[in-house]
Structure formats: C-alpha cells, structure tokens
Design a protein that fits this description.
nine-stranded mixed β-sheet, alpha/beta, 19 strands, Rossmann fold, globular, 14 helices, single chain
C-alpha cells in the first residue's frame, strides 16, 4: 500500500480541490481556462484532449512546431517561454498542461502549482526522485487537482485486468513480469553541428546543470532527448509508467523495498542509457497481500533478456503469476488467461471499475468538482519513483535497499543520483 502520510495528503488535495468560475463557451459548461506548455508530439495529443475547454495560452519553445496549434486556437496568446507565459496569464487561467521533456517537468509543474493552478503532466511525472517528492508535497499543500499522463489507465482493458486480479481468481499473486520490446536509439555527440538550433538553448536546458550539446539524431533534440541521462531515462522512463501502472494498480504495490538491475550498453554510441535492461523489484507484504516480486525487461519481445521466452501476440506485456499455475497475460488492448483449462472454466468477474470518461476529461471534470482523478500525483508519484529507482540501480551497479519514509537508498553513490541541484536562475519555484 502507499505510504499512509503521502496517501492521506494526496487524497486531501483531491477532496479539497476548489471549483473554478463559470464561463460561457459553446457546448462546454463551466469551461476550464487552460495554458498548455508544449504543443507538438505528445503535447499535440494532450492539446487535443483538452481542446473543448477555453485555451487561453499556448507555449512552444521551437516556434515552427506550434504552427498547427496556433492555427487551431488563433485567439490564444502565444509564448516561447512558459515562465513568461505564467507571469502574463497567471490570473487568467485555472489549470496548466505540461508536455515538456522529462527534465523540465518538475520546474514547469512547480511553477504552475505555486500559482495555485491544477496540473496535468506527462509521464514520467519527473526526471528525478527528489523532484517527484517536491512536486507531490507542493500539490498536496496547494490542494490542486492533478493527473499524470498515463492515458492507458483510462482504457477498458486495464480495468478488466484489475478486476480479475482483485477478484482473487488467480489466487495470491506474488510474481509479475513486465516487458517492452522497444530499444533506445544510439547517438553520437557532435562537435560541429551543421544546422544550429534557433530556439533558446538555455531555456531548453531549464534546471539541468550541464551545457547543451548536439547529438547525431534526426531533429535533435526533439524526442531523442529521452536517450540521454541529463534529459531522459531511456526506455524505462519512457514506457515504464505505462506498463508498470497495471500491476501497480491491480496489486496496490506502493513503493519497493529493494531494487537491482542489469543490462547491456548501446553499441557504438555516446549515450549510455541501456540497450536492454532487467530490473528486479521487491515490494513488501501488506495487510492485504504478501510480498511481490516484479521484474521489468526492455529491448526484448518477452520476459527474458536472452529473448527466448515469448508469448505470441504480446511483444510488450504484463504477466501476473497466481497460484496453481494460473496466469494472466495482458497488454494495452487485450488480455489472456493461462493455461487453456483455466481460461475455459473462468467467468469474468463483476464490473467494479467504472468506464472512464477519458483520461483528460477525468482531470477536467475533477477541476469542476465532478469526480476524482485516478492518476493524481499521490498515485503516480510513487509509480514514477519506482520506475526511476530502476535506472538508479542500473547506473549505480548495486542492489539497493529503499527507505520510502526517508527517501534514501543504502548507497551514497545511488543517493547522489536521486536529485539534482538546479542551476542558478532555475531554482525550484515555491
């Protein structure tokens, strides 16, 4: 289960979320006034998810990437710096959508929360564990409505899997495997880029205390920032919150007590995120269940770094192992009970998880005082921490013990990776 103090704080923040003022805007009653930070790639999808509301301001650091969004919302004020945007329109908005690269999630989110604004932030919630804790604390203190962008959480398939696991049909589940076949793109640092970028590189770096560098990726740094430690966390940080969300939800995993990792390096590359990775997590027993062992794998099409274990039709997936050989295999859109004898004799449990109104809509409705968000920062914060701890174990090369109350491992080397001191001018907003 989640640490009690963190759970209570998060729940209080949701329950006490204030209502916004009433505005007339076509078919949407009481529309939420929004500022959207990042409007390309995932940002474009998030903008689509909130498009029926009142879009007050748009922000995109690379202006040519905002052409479509500005055309769609010609009345919205446009900015290339979200700090300037929040300074200018802070009193005109109710909430903020954050779709920046991982390394600026925390700063943008904290900037919005400091103004008392509700926040929808893309996964992973933050770039470091320290940032996650800072964001969770701020959101609870300001009592804002939050949601992390793990949109698969709103899908019917995940809900049916959660119902099966929680119904007890599998018996006690103490072993879970999670895998993603994706691999990072290898890159090289370039000393003399052919085309220098035209947007503000200092602003793009945000709080990261390192110099900007050019890498040999198409359209650098967009998208490919995720394959470099200063800005992203490889495949695990990119996809871990999506796939690990399912067992995290179904088994109410909370925080792990131990983490270890092993992987392989990218060949002929300067970026050092792992090409393949296995992370073994131990989640302590609770009153509701026994200890759970969960293993993450990426870069392989099944739960095995050697690539020998496969499940046809599930190149990415989650495998719950129950009692007596009962198993449940799932991905984003489908699930399968194993073995066949168990599947034939099983009936679907009662529906206990209601159909979602939509991941973005859930957040918007909660801001209006209707319902709650399921991926609020009190839930998605520990999920993100779990994912990030896998990368820390890999980078430290150690098996780590994790003290959730203290927010520390048993290794000085690993603890040094838990947070970063933001550079001058980019201190954490309070």
């Amino acid at each position: 289960m989640l640490n009690r103090r963190r759970f209570v704080a998060a729940s209080t923040a949701i329950a006490a979320a204030p209502l916004v003022k009433v505005f007339a805007a076509g078919e949407v009653k009481n529309p939420v006034r929004l500022a959207v930070i990042g409007v390309a790639d995932r940002g474009a999808e998030n903008l689509k998810g909130v498009a029926a509301e009142s879009i007050v301001a748009l922000c995109e650091i690379d202006e040519p990437r905002a052409v479509a969004a500005r055309k769609q919302f010609p009345k919205a004020q446009f900015f290339t710096d979200y700090r300037a945007m929040l300074d200018k329109v802070g009193k005109e908005i109710d909430a903020v959508v954050v779709s920046t690269p991982d390394h600026t999630h925390a700063h943008a989110t904290l900037s919005a929360i400091a103004l008392g604004k509700h926040v929808y932030c893309e996964k992973p919630l933050c770039h470091t564990v320290g940032e996650v804790r800072r964001v969770m604390k701020a959101a609870a203190a300001k009592k804002v409505v939050t949601q992390m962008g793990t949109q698969i959480h709103a899908g019917d398939n995940y809900r049916r899997v959660v119902e099966i696991v929680q119904s007890g049909k599998l018996g006690a589940v103490q072993r879970v495997h999670v895998w993603c076949s994706r691999r990072p793109d290898p890159g090289r640092v370039m000393k003399a880029p052919v085309n220098r970028l035209k947007f503000d590189l200092d602003q793009w770096l945000g709080p990261v205390p390192e110099d900007f560098f050019y890498a040999g990726h198409l359209n650098w740094p967009h998208f490919h920032w995720r394959w470099w430690w200063p800005f992203g966390g490889g495949v695990l940080a990119d996809m871990g919150c999506h796939f690990t969300d399912l067992p995290f939800w179904a088994l109410e995993l909370g925080s792990p007590s131990a983490v270890k990792a092993t992987g392989t390096e990218l060949p002929n590359a300067d970026n050092t995120v792992p090409q393949t990775l296995r992370v073994d997590y131990t989640f302590p027993a609770t009153k509701g269940r026994g200890e759970v062992k969960l293993t993450w794998y990426h870069g392989v099409p099944g739960p095995d770094l050697d690539g020998k274990v496969r499940f046809p039709g599930f190149n990415d997936g989650v495998l719950f192992e129950g009692e007596g050989g009962k198993k449940l295999l799932a991905n984003y859109t489908k699930y399968q009970l194993l073995p066949d004898e168990f599947a034939k004799d099983s009936k679907a449990p009662d529906v206990t998880v209601a159909k979602s109104v939509g991941h973005h809509q859930e957040w918007l409705d909660a801001i209006r005082g209707d319902g709650k968000t399921l991926c609020h920062f009190g839930y998605s914060g520990p999920l993100t921490e779990t994912v990030l701890l896998g990368n820390i174990a890999y980078r430290a090369g150690l098996e780590l013990k994790w003290d959730d109350d203290k927010g520390l491992t048993d290794s000085k080397e690993a603890n040094a990776l838990l947070s970063l001191e933001p550079r001058k001018g980019w201190e954490w907003p309070a």
